[in-house]
Design a protein that fits this description.
Organism: Stercorarius parasiticus
Distance between the termini: 31 Å
GO molecular function: endonuclease activity
Strand order of the largest sheet: 1-2
Protein name: LAS1L protein
Mean pLDDT: 79
Number of helices: 8
InterPro entries: Las1 (IPR007174)
Radius of gyration: 18 Å
Helix content: 55-70%
Largest sheet: 2 strands, antiparallel
GO biological process, one term: maturation of 5.8S rRNA
Number of domains: 1
Amino acid sequence: SRKRFKALRTVVAWRGRAEWDQVMVGLYCGESRLQQEALDRVSAWKSRYGPKMPLAVDSTAELIRCKVLDSSGRLKSHELILSYGLALVRFVNLITERKQKVVSIPLRQLAREVDIPIWVVDLRHELTHGKLPPLALCRKGCDVVLDWLRKTYWSRQLGNNLCEENEDEDEDEEQEGVEENAELDNDAWT
């Protein structure tokens, strides 16, 4: 039984549940200094985990990085549009890419399937193929996508944490750096 339990574990980049929760709170707190600390932690995770990093974590970090840069006042409007634009384009592409089949499915249809507002897909289209949209629209798109990520991915993880009961209290120390919850990996959030 114990060997079987260990075989079901997934190794992750974060030290444990407390670090995961701390980063989630830091990313969404709205205070630039704490957000930057959370972004630094995500960068460390990415260096450890590489391409296995959950897409939701990566996308959230990219969008929060844009907000931190925006609040710093260091970038011009045009630079901010490009920064937000890249993060939004990557988000839509990564989300929909996982749902694509052998036959190409329109992005608007894929977005509907995962409950992303169609106007975000249209914004992605403008950023990719058209005239750059106003900064206010990019900011709004970022906020909507961050809210979607919070509801679809981050809150679900927190909810699972609150509902989980540890069956064997003696194994708590052994689980540092190892996460049982497979929903924290790449495949769980699409």
